[in-house]
Amino acid sequence: MRLNILNHGYNAGTKILFAIIKAVSRYPLPDAAKIIFYRPDFYGRPAKKFTQRAMRGPSAWSVGDRELMAAYVSNLNQCSFCIKAHSAVAAQAYNDRAKVDKALADLNTGNIGEPLRATLSLLGKLTRANSIDANDIRTVMAAGASQQQIEDALAVCFAFNVTNRLADALGFFVPGPDAFDAGAKYLLKRGYQ
Amino acid sequence: MANNNDTSSFRHLCQGLVSRVLKGKGYSSQTDRQAAFNNAGLAEPLKTLIDKTANQAYKVSDGDIDAVLQSGLSEDQIFELVVCAAVGQSSRQYMNALSALDEVAKENKGGGHAS
């Protein structure tokens, strides 16, 4: 990462934890997880609470749907780390890599239901234009998404608009596909806490 | 819609994050953190780093960070201000979207449901 404190500025206990994770998983802790441990009272702890609630809390959206939303928002923000990380999680959650790749390539031809397609489109407009209006919400509801599903999706959108910006501004290292697959297994098993 | 008194609600958790990065203990002043959050009122070279973080983060370069370090800010200050910029831009989007959702929820009161 571009700031040395984010590469080396951890206390002894945290460094030991990082070493254990590397020994067990065979991969170093990804930078997205590392920054959560850096002065966690400032950003990591409150961010982790929000993200865990959005990605693994109760919702009518499946975990795969929410991970696809994360990958979709990341794709629009051109955030290489998060596209790879969350398309890997979505692919494992759905057990269908092609479904994820097709949705990211073209929302209109991807093999996803109308409520999810309309919701992803809404998140896309919000991410690109920074605003949406009541008519945009009504369109998604007419496609079959409930108000609660929209609120849940907006939370995913917020979480990843923050994370994408941090990933690119701070310069998260982008590892190879094997590391992302290992990280995806971890995120499916343990979530974001 | 969500009850803001529900400590697990998205709005409550978002407010907690915003409040912490703006008003909690830090190495940068609250004034600078608020300016980074708002992406307004900053001088170069910090202005460029914060504006890129808010609007085109994929364009941030090593040189943008180095220039701010050279201007005298510490790494901890830069970390805090980049976090404020990311949370600021994202929370403006989020609050705008929640307002639109609230407008529709009000229309549908009694019919729809959203926690």
Structure, explained:
The complex is a heterodimer of chains A (193) and B (115). Chain A has 193 residues and is an all-alpha fold. In chain A, 73% of the residues lie in helices and 0% in strands. The mean pLDDT of chain A is 96. By secondary structure, chain B is mainly alpha-helical. Chain B is elongated and about 60 Å long. Chain B starts with 9 loop residues before the first helix and ends in an 8-residue tail after the last helix. Chains A and B meet through helix 1, helix 4, helix 9 and helix 10 of A and helix 1, helix 3 and helix 5 of B.
User: SSE string of chain A, helix = H, strand = E?
Assistant: HHHHHHHHHHH
Mean pLDDT of chain A: 96
Radius of gyration of chain A: 17 Å
Runs of chain B in which pLDDT lies below 50 for 5 or more consecutive residues are 1-5
Estimate the helix proportion of chain B, in percent.
Answer: 55-70%
Helix content of chain A: over 70%
Given the helix and strand composition of chain B, which structural class is it? mainly alpha
Quick one: biggest sheet of chain A?
none
Shape of chain A: globular
Count of DSSP E strands of chain A?
Answer: 0
State the oligomer.
heterodimer
Largest interface: A-B, 52 and 53 residues
Spans of chain A of at least 5 consecutive residues whose pLDDT stays below 50 are none
Number of DSSP E strands of chain B: 0
Shape of chain B: elongated
CA radius of gyration of chain B is 17 Å
Q: Describe the biggest sheet of chain B? A: none
Determine the mean pLDDT of chain B. Answer: 91
Bin the strand percentage of chain A.
under 5%
Structural class of chain A: mainly alpha
